[in-house]
Amino acid sequence: MSPSISRRTVAVVAAATVSLFAALATASQAGASTYYACVKKNGSAHIYTKKPKCKKGESKLSWNNVGPTGKNGRNGLNGANGKNGTNGTNGTNGKEGAPGANGTARAFAVVSDTVEFAGVHTGFSGVTRPATGVYCLVPAAGSGLDQSGATVENPGSAAAVSVDWGWSGGGEFGNVELRQRPFGQCPAADFEVYTFKLNTAVSPVKYEFSNSIGFHIIVP
Length: 220
Hints:
Blueprint: H1 3-30, E1 34-39, E2 45-48, E3 59-64, E4 107-111, E5 124-131, E6 134-139, E7 160-163, E8 174-179, E9 191-199, E10 206-209, E11 215-219
Antiparallel strand pairs: 1-2, 1-3, 4-11, 5-6, 6-9, 7-11, 8-9, 9-10
């Protein structure tokens, strides 16, 4: 190859390279992603950002300036935990509720194993214990609970009775029952209640009258 041909070839390639970089710079600023070129047989080329119509004797080329998607980067380190927030202020106290409606029981009382009313009692004026495990509750005057008119066919007023462990000194296995008039050991007007304790020291075990059982009574 002659030196003159080599210089000519270098000049053509250099010119084509300069033209290519100039076109790419322009295309990059225009935001194009696909490039086109019309290349002559001598290596000179015209670069386009839009699809051209090449002249006779020119070859059409195209390529994309966007490469394949890169791999995802590594996850970043976890950030430090934030500081705890300050405690909120206490809410205001709610308003006091309205008083409840009065109960409908005509009488109620808690009787301790010491033969005393424990706390408030209504409808009864007194209590006695004439025998072991036998309690007589005296209806208050005007309460309408006098049991004097009771008969076998029409026994005295019904009442609910139950052991009150808080006022008992006899431990477990206590029992209590109401003895309705006209039977029993109390005066005719009174409510008569029996209290028992299970005797586990005998065989077979059995309930026996006991003074160690407190109870409560309600007359609806």
